[in-house]
Each structure stands twice: as structure tokens, then as C-alpha cells.
Here is the input.
Amino acid sequence: MESRDGGFYDLLRRSLAILFLVGVFCLQTSASEGGTALPDSYLAKVDSIPDFPQVPPGSGRATGRASQFCGPAAVTNVLVWLDNNGFPDMVPDVANASVEYKLMKYLGQDSFMKVGKTGSSPSNVMSGLYKYCRQRGYRPLIEWRGWRKGGPFKTSGVPDLRWLFAGSIGTSNVILNIGFYRYEAGTDTYSRISGHFVTMVGYEGAYGANPKIIIHDPSLRSGRVTKHEYCRLVLIRSGTFA
Here is the structure.
């Protein structure tokens, strides 16, 4: 379904890389910002990265801590895809909705992503993901760019679209931490009121004025069936972020 309105110890030498961008984080293995030209669009993984909801199977709505599990859910999409594409033992062998939700809850523990009443911070999601990958026998490379704290994973203060697009190609994957802001016209100020994690699964029109990123959204707003949501990027040319 598409929406255009707008996842072993013998293998330790494999490298995983994860990018976090303003409202995004990525699990990246092979892409780089270097001289290789990016394709204008990348759709190879749109149909193969899962789109798990952040709530228990059979639940009609998100309540309590389940309403804050967007981070673990967005990461689970990527871990399951990696497990099916060259990174065995990344997730438990049995794959069904119940098992995937158990993985989300496992990742949300205080010993990993520390999901609380207000969700999980990007730094906690990255730290938890790093610890989980090491537990599964992999040594991940995690990168973050954005205005929120990225801890040891921060590589730059300013996100870059080329970095974002490159991070979604091949066995690299991107997770976005999207910020929701209230705009005050009188002061030309944007005040953050909340945030949300989603999985980026592709992009279109990288060289155009307003490229689109394609996401899988774990919130129930997006439904329980796989839904590709196309989000057009528009440059904000003035204002201050509070």
C-alpha cells in the first residue's frame, strides 16, 4: 500500500554503520558521502523492509508505554531486514508479529533503549542498538547528525541530504527521529513539542528542488498493513529553532 501524502562470532569483521539525523537515524554498512554519484532515486528496499506497528498484536490503540515504542519499532524493521539480507542471527529465528513485538519490548528495556513515559532519546536508542548488535555478534558503526545530543555517535552538527540518501543504499539503513514543532509567526520561531522515530526505506528525486523520502511509520495512524509514505522535503529559509 502506498501513501504519497506527505526499518556469530565468526562474522565480527562485518561492519555495520548507523546514522542518526536530526529526526533520523540509520544503520549503514556500505554507503559513503565520497565521490560515487548517488542514484536520483533508490527504491530497492521499499517492499522488503518491514513496517511493524509499535503496539502489541491485536491491539486497537497504543496505551501506556506502548505509545512510546516508536524507537524500538523503527529499529526492529531494520534488524529484521538485515537478518534476511546477509546478517544472520541479528534477530531470533522465529519471525511473526508476536516475536517481533517481543523484540521491541526487549530493546525498550532500561538496559538497552530506556523507553520511558516520554519515549527514548536518540542517544539512548543508539546506545541500546549498539549494545544489542554487539550481543548478537556484530560490531556496528553508528553515526549521528542533528541538533539533539548524539553522544559518542555524533559526527557533525548539521545534517546533509547526501549523507542521508547515501545511508539508505545497499546494506545501510536509515532511521529518522522526526521533530514536531509549533511555529510562532510573530517571532519566526519553531518550538519543539514532541518527536517520533520512523524507518526510511528509500527516496526519490535526490537532485530535484524538493526530493521525497519514503518512510515506514510504526504509529497506528499509519495502520497495521505495510504502507509506503512519501514525504516531500521543503527547505525552511528563515526562523529560529527553540
